Amino acid sequence: MKRVLIITYYWPPSGGSGVQRWLKMSKYLPENGWQPVIYTAENAEYPVEDPSLEKDVCPEAEVIRRPIVEPYNYYKKLLGIKKDQKVKAGFIDESGKQKGWKERLSVWVRGNFFIPDARCWWVKPSVKYLKAYLKDHPVDAIVSTGPPHSMHLIAMKLKEALNLPWIADFRDPWTEIDYYDDLHLTRWADRKHRRLEHKVLTQADKIAGVGWDMAEGLERLGAKHVDVIPNGFDWEPQANPEATHLSSEFTLTHIGIIGANRNEHQLWQALGELKAFDSQFASKLKIRLIGQVDQSVALSIESCNLQDNTEFISYIPHDQIQQQQASSQVLLLFVNNTPNAKGILTGKLFEYIAAGRPILCIGPEDGDAARIISETESGVTVGFEEKEKMKTVIKDLYERYLGNRLPSNENAEIEKYSRKALAWEFAKLLEKAQMQTE
Predict the structure, then answer these.
(1) How many CA atoms lie less than 13 Å away from 58 in the CB half-sphere?
(2) 300 in Cβ contact with 263 (< 8 Å)
(3) CATH fourth-level superfamily of 2-232+419-437
(4) In the 8-state DSSP scheme, what is residue 225?
(5) CA distance 294 to 118
(6) List of residues 6+ apart from 295 with CB closer than 8 A
(7) Residue 247: is it exposed, middle or buried by C-beta count within 10 angstroms (0-12/13-18/19+)?
(8) Whole-prediction pTM
(9) What backbone torsions phi and psi does residue 280 show, to the nearest 5 degrees?
(10) Cα within 13 Å of Cα(166), Cβ side
(11) Distance between CA atoms of 337 and 384, rounded to whole angstroms?
(12) How far apart are CA 230 and CA 227, in angstroms?
């Protein structure tokens, strides 16, 4: 069996979305002729932890954990945060308080001195360790996955030293990510980010991305060709009988982080107006938000008089999520309302599709998410500002719910987004990368 070194920051016990792609991809690589060798951090600072994911680590995987110096320890000291308290993902704010000078300074320091990200201190010791390791334990190819994009820099240094086939896998963009401008970069720092990004895009043997719009963006930035291998799901649709017991209420469920740029205020207004107009709708409506939620979302919900209809759940282990999804009447998918919205393709979309419940997506109607929802006939996408259309769609879903006519999705196109099928696609890409370097 061939061996592939996978350089990833996120690995169990990490929870959340960042860990899913390569935890699941590596699970199915052995049956496609590749043994995964995972290189990851020993003492990482994860926003959430989920020990239930340990069971998905395939028996054939060799896992190498090495110490990492986390700048977040200094960040916590600066802001007076308790050592055992988790740092929230991205720029999510649950407090609602205006950011003070310490918070603003920490963001500026992070953007301008930790390039490309807060894990940049791990690059040099990782390269030194892996060069020695690979002499005695050779591999046939390397995969790096980012963010954090420091993982690509580790792989690039190994490529330069050992000339191994290398695939750089982008789960999110680098300089085109939605919060890039929020880093308040100096011209010098911006140039360095772009220089490193271009170097990765041009030196990797293959570039992989999760969506078509992202692929076009990476090609504009220097990649010769980007292979699109989307995220996927790792269970049979409605495989858990317990999960098929639908809620008796008209439940609209969102699973995952909702930052300020995913606060779909037009949707909350639409639901608030429908509630005010129809007392029966008001009594049956249940909104479930599972995951970290920005304070702006809670304020919008309250302003639309939906607080009594809304349940906030901070986190649910991944092995319980299928039941939550399949028991909901409708699943909510929010695309970030940012310039790169067309290319945002979150991992939860594919698990929603596998759950078989109707999806209401708020985002670009010509975006990648809308494309897959249409292809799999799994729901409907409505534009950010289309409040009246949102009301029409919700009323139709509600009438179907009352008549017990909400459809369960059984489209055959769903299967190609299974993690097993996608691992086979990635194994083919590994073979191509090998041929390219021979």
Answers:
(1) 19
(2) yes
(3) Glycogen Phosphorylase B; (3.40.50.2000)
(4) -
(5) 22
(6) 93, 94, 95, 96
(7) middle
(8) 0.85
(9) -65, -45
(10) 24
(11) 7
(12) 10
Closest by alpha carbon to 342, among 377, 379, 376, 384? Answer: 384
Residue with tokens 């995964």: 36
Residues whose CB is less than 8 angstroms from the CB of residue 152 and which lie 6 or more positions away in sequence, other chains included? 144, 146, 168, 200, 204
Q: Do domains 2-232+419-437 and 241-415 have the same CATH topology?
A: yes
**Residue in 407, 411, 385, 387 with CA at minimum distance from that of residue 397:** 407
pLDDT above 90 coverage of the chain, percent: 69
* Integer CA distances (angstroms), 140 to 155, 193, 404, 431, 435, in order: 13, 29, 54, 10, 11
Q: Residue written as tokens 């209401």?
A: 360
* 326 neighbors 355 (Cβ within 8 angstroms): yes
User: Strand, coil or helix: what is 37?
Assistant: strand
Sequence-distant (6+) residues with CB within 8 A of 157 are 123, 127
Report the C-alpha gap between 226 and 56 in whole angstroms. 28
Q: Are 169 and 146 in contact (CB under 8 A)?
A: yes
84: Cα within 13 Å, side-chain hemisphere:
0
Structure tokens given for 33: 């002729």
> 């395939």: which residue's tokens?
58
Residue showing tokens 């399949």: 326
Q: How far is CA 317 from the centre of its chain?
A: 16
Q: What share of the chain is helix, strand, coil (3-state, %, to 5)?
A: 45, 15, 35
Residue 70: per-residue pLDDT: 79
CATH number of this structure's domain 241-415, picked from the four choices 3.40.50.11750, 2.60.120.260, 3.40.50.2000, 2.60.40.420? 3.40.50.2000
Question: Domain map of the chain by residue range?
Answer: 2-232+419-437, 241-415
Assigned token pair, 315: 């986190």
In one letter, which amino acid is 126? Answer: S
Give mean pLDDT in consecutive 10-residue pieces for the chain, a chain of 438 residues.
Answer: 97 91 96 98 88 92 93 55 53 50 71 88 97 97 97 98 97 92 91 98 97 95 96 68 71 92 94 96 96 92 96 83 87 93 89 91 96 94 96 96 83 86 97 88
